[in-house]
Design brief:
Blueprint: E1 3-8, H1 20-32, E2 37-44, H2 47-53, E3 57-65, E4 68-77, E5 80-86, H3 88-91, H4 109-124, E6 135-139, H5 140-152, E7 163-167, E8 175-177, E9 197-198, E10 201-203, H6 204-211, E11 214-217, H7 220-225, H8 229-232, H9 236-241, E12 246-248, H10 278-289, E13 298-305, H11 314-323, E14 327-334, H12 336-348, E15 353-357, H13 361-370, E16 373-376, H14 386-393, E17 396-400, H15 403-408, H16 414-418, E18 425-427, H17 432-446, H18 449-461, H19 467-483
Parallel strand pairs: 1-2, 1-6, 2-5, 6-7, 7-11, 11-12, 13-14, 13-16, 14-15, 16-17, 17-18
Antiparallel strand pairs: 3-4, 4-5, 8-10, 9-10
Length: 485
């Protein structure tokens, strides 16, 4: 018999996406099928999600889910069973999943995602007829309250359902003023350090950390980092206390979606055995961004323009990058000051540096297929996906030595090159001198064609499919389901 898992997330591809969480929540369920885990995904009923699923069967109704009427819809997405929380008062609004059209957080995000958690706890613990689950798996702060409701306000007489919390990024914690506690409809006993209280307010992620049976992060290094003050974001003490429950599992990528041999977004498809065909993609990328045609190295970035991603350092190194024969194409959005500095750099280096603000999924594929190297100078990175896409596409990652970046990229030092193991370039410290040195080293490697080709082929040969990671998650589910029959 398969283990039945309810996966709860605020976004999942291909229905709704703002970041890597959606890639994981969308791809992991299908990968788990081969490992004896049948996953049903629960998502909020955003307009885009409801439009995508079309006509769907109503399987449950809440007259008042934390004050708003809601219904539960059942649908199918490929091989994955899908549940959608259709609550117009919470989710039928313009803008993104978390922000309005102006990019401001919705004032009631606490209630919106608490309602998602309350619904998930009801479903997981048998409060919806015909649905039964062995394990609940919550992703990030938006779903973490599901675990709080399971433990602190369960459905009456419900069997205990074990819960897994996956932390995709500790920087986003869902902390709210104590005044919201009354609206959560939790018992008074939940207001304690062992419940939902933290730093004088309500902590959504903290609640999940406190009460989950197993906590996973999206890389082994990040699991070690979040017990430190630098990366723990104020919750390092709790993570340390729960250390025996914390495990790091590297994310995978959808190798059907991200495969240069079959990617229809590319001007020319290729494999590790036909790398010269990448040149057509490079020419197409140069044309798209208005860059001068050159056989010199073309760096790319596909990123959020934020301090976390190290994007603020990029304007500082543009003169160095261009002065050493490189060019740079950037796709991203975020901090307006960083965007302005990048545009100023592009104006200073016409034909050498280009910036496109926004996100374009097809263009991100073309950039991986046409760029020579991808810059990922994150100050912290729980796992990271763009470097994995780079490896798969022969776009050599240049990464800071942190989190999942250090777990997935093997630095092209002399020993690794001699052993035929190098897959990219790592550097320490996100500042001008470290990044400039990494760019210089990357350009030097690029100029040694035989070494560069080997680095590309090594990366393309690496296995970052979901197979191994899914097996690790399935083992956790099996352990928990066995402990709580």
């Amino acid at each position: 018999m398969p283990i039945n898992v309810l996966s709860v997330a605020s976004e999942a591809v291909p229905l709704i996406k703002t970041g890597g969480l959606a890639d994981v929540a969308g791809a992991l369920p299908a990968a788990l099928l081969a490992h004896g885990a049948a996953v049903t995904s629960l998502l909020p009923g955003y307009p885009a999600v409801l439009a995508a699923i079309g006509a769907a069967r109503t399987v449950h109704v809440w007259d008042a889910l934390l004050g708003q009427p809601a219904r539960l819809l059942s649908a199918k997405l490929g091989s994955t069973d899908l549940l959608v929380l259709d609550a117009p008062g919470y989710f039928a609004r313009p803008g993104g999943p978390y922000t309005d059209a102006a990019g401001q957080d919705w004032d009631d995000n606490w209630r919106r995602f608490a309602a998602l958690g309350r619904a998930a706890a009801d479903i997981a613990s048998g409060g919806v007829a015909g649905l039964r689950f062995d394990v609940l798996h919550a992703h990030d702060w938006q779903a973490a309250m599901a675990i709080a409701y399971l433990r602190l306000a369960p459905v009456q007489a419900a069997p205990r359902v074990p819960a897994v919390l996956t932390i995709h990024n500790m920087a986003f914690q869902g902390w709210y003023d104590a005044g919201i506690f009354a609206g959560l409809e939790l018992p008074d006993t939940a207001w304690s350090i062992d419940g939902v209280e933290t730093y004088g307010g309500v902590g959504f992620l903290k609640s999940g950390l406190q009460l989950a049976d197993v906590i996973t992060t999206v890389s082994p290094t990040y699991a070690r980092e979040i017990v430190t003050t630098e990366f723990g974001m104020g919750l390092e003490g709790l993570v340390a206390l729960r250390g025996d429950r914390v495990r790091g599992i590297v994310n995978g990528i959808d190798t059907a979606e991200w495969n240069p041999a079959s990617d229809t977004a590319l001007a020319a498809r290729y494999s590790a055995r036909s790398l010269p065909r990448r040149t057509a993609n490079k020419r197409a990328l140069e044309q798209h961004f208005g860059l001068e045609e050159s056989d010199g190295p073309l760096f790319i970035m596909v990123t959020r323009l934020t301090w976390q991603k190290g994007a603020d350092v990029i304007p500082e190194v543009l003169d160095h990058l261009v002065g050493n024969g490189g060019r740079l194409a950037i796709l991203g959005s975020g901090d307006a000051a960083i965007a302005a500095a990048l545009h100023a750099g592009a104006a200073r280096h016409p034909g050498k540096v280009a910036v496109q603000i926004g996100y374009d999924e097809a263009l991100s594929h073309r950039m991986q297929g046409g760029g020579d190297a991808i810059l990922v100078p994150s100050r912290f990175e729980p796992c990271g996906l763009t470097q994995l896409y780079g490896l798969a596409y022969g776009c050599v990652p240049v990464v800071s030595r942190t989190g999942g970046l250090s777990d997935t990229v093997i630095d092209a030092n002399p020993a690794a090159i001699a052993a035929g193991a190098a897959t990219g370039v790592q550097f320490d410290g996100v500042h001008y001198h470290a990044l400039a040195a990494a760019i210089s080293r990357t350009i030097s490697l690029y100029q040694q064609a035989h070494i560069w080709r080997q680095i590309q082929r090594n990366g393309m040969a690496a296995d970052f499919s979901w197979g191994r990671s899914a097996a690790d998650y399935a083992a956790i589910y099996q352990q928990l389901a066995g402990a709580h029959p």
